[in-house]
């Protein structure tokens, strides 16, 4: 690795650490903050998640195209950093009072803000880091592992302080973004004339060609009915875990510790997974991740105490790296590289569309039939569609080239 690549790897790893630290500090205990500290029901919390996803739904295709249009230019990430800086004061002085006293206004305003900075912003950040990693020849997964460490550290701190003073994690979120901006300032991303020419020549019609690509739709089905079922299940898992203990405070404390341990192992696997995905192929890695997701959801329906439920949480340490790395590698191998951000953000678009529908449904099911029965339903759906996509999703190397040229840029 040359000096410029090494410098960019270190600074972008620090940036991702701090970005995900901020996200975790503000959102990892979100369901506990809303239900236990603000007194909002599970159904209303599901509505909040749904609105956040709906806003992201509108923004992700736009962000994807703009990200590909800008290429390695930093402008879009600077825009996100500027929006993220006041995240702490927003939660404390704007979001919380509105959710309590004017729920729908708070949910809509919060959805607009959080839908951009996190639900859409994460795709912009991940896609940009993937592009830089390919440009400077280091593994994206080994940048993302530092982001997971940031998430783990923030989860541990949040679990420690949320019952003492729930405002502390939000102030930590803003402080982390200030440091992230400084790290990003010192990165050196050189643009070649060819790269500038390619991004400037990109047109909306090129992105629309993706709609004719069969594998694009198969990948979207996987995201809709496997990955996003899993993400919806995971939204209120902290609440379910805390119910396994004598008091909610004890459950919150142990969830913070468990979350930190889980993300530590997630970091370890992120260092290993790029080698594994390169060896077995991106499609097989996606299917393996889908199997782990389905089994984890169904396993959570076996309510035999906090140790077992904690073990289900730990399975996330394997599944998350597999999804993150294999999805980017599948996109890079099977779609035109100039549209990589568009494809990725459209996958997140499908996820947000699903969340808009799934989250209030999940909240209603939790309140009406309980966590266990809801998990059986979710796990069955995810398992069926994992089998479906295992059959229908194809790798470029195993198919005629023509099947994968529909999305290329003329």
Automatic annotation (TrEMBL):
The alphabetized UniProt keywords are: Cell inner membrane, Cell membrane, Membrane, Transmembrane, Transmembrane helix, Transport
Q: What is this protein called?
A: Oligosaccharide MFS transporter
What's the chief localization of this chain?
membrane
Record flagged with keyword Cell inner membrane:
yes
The record, for Pfam families, names: LacY_symp
Q: Which organism is it from?
A: Vibrio porteresiae DSM 19223
Membrane-crossing segments per the record: 9-34, 46-64, 76-96, 102-122, 143-162, 168-187, 216-233, 253-273, 285-308, 344-366, 372-393
Cell compartments where the protein resides = Cell inner membrane
**How is it placed in the membrane, per its record?**
Multi-pass membrane protein
């Amino acid at each position: 690795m040359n000096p410029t690549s090494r410098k960019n790897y270190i600074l972008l790893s620090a940036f991702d650490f701090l970005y995900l630290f901020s996200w975790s500090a503000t959102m990892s205990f979100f369901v506990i903050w809303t239900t236990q500290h603000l007194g909002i029901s599970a159904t209303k919390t599901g509505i909040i998640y749904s609105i956040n996803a709906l806003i992201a739904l509108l923004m992700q295709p736009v962000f994807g195209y703009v990200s590909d249009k800008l290429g390695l230019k930093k402008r879009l990430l600077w825009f996100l950093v500027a929006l993220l800086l006041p995240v702490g004061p927003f939660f404390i002085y704007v979001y919380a009072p509105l959710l309590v006293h004017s729920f729908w206004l708070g949910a809509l305003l919060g959805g607009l803000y959080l839908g951009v900075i996190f639900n859409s912003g994460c795709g912009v950040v991940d896609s940009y880091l993937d592009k830089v990693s390919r440009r400077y020849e280091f593994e994206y997964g080994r940048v993302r592992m530092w982001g997971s460490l940031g998430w783990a550290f923030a989860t541990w701190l949040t679990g420690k302080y949320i019952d003492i003073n729930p405002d502390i994690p939000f102030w930590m979120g803003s402080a982390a973004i200030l440091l992230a901006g400084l790290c990003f300032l010192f990165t050196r991303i050189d643009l070649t004339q060819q790269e500038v020419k390619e991004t400037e020549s990109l047109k909306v019609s090129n992105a629309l060609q993706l709609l004719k690509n069969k594998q694009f739709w198969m990948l979207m089905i996987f995201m809709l009915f496997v990955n996003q079922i899993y993400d919806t299940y995971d939204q209120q898992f902290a609440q379910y875990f805390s119910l396994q203990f004598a008091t909610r405070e004890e459950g919150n404390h142990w969830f913070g510790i468990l979350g930190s341990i889980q993300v530590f192992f997630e970091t370890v696997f992120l260092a290993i997974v790029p080698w594994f995905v390169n060896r077995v192929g991106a499609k097989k890695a996606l299917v393996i991740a889908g199997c782990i997701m389905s089994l984890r959801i169904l396993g959570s329906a076996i309510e035999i105490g906090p140790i077992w439920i904690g073990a289900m949480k730990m399975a996330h340490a394997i599944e998350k790296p597999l999804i993150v790395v294999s999805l980017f590698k599948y996109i890079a191998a099977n779609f035109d590289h100039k549209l990589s951000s568009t494809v990725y953000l459209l996958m997140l678009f499908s996820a947000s569309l699903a969340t808009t529908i799934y989250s209030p449904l999940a909240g209603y099911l939790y309140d009406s039939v309980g966590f266990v029965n809801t998990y059986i339903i979710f796990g069955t759906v995810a398992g069926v569609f994992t089998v479906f996509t295992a059959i229908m999703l194809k790798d470029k190397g195993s198919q005629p080239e023509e099947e994968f040229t529909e999305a290329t840029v003329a």
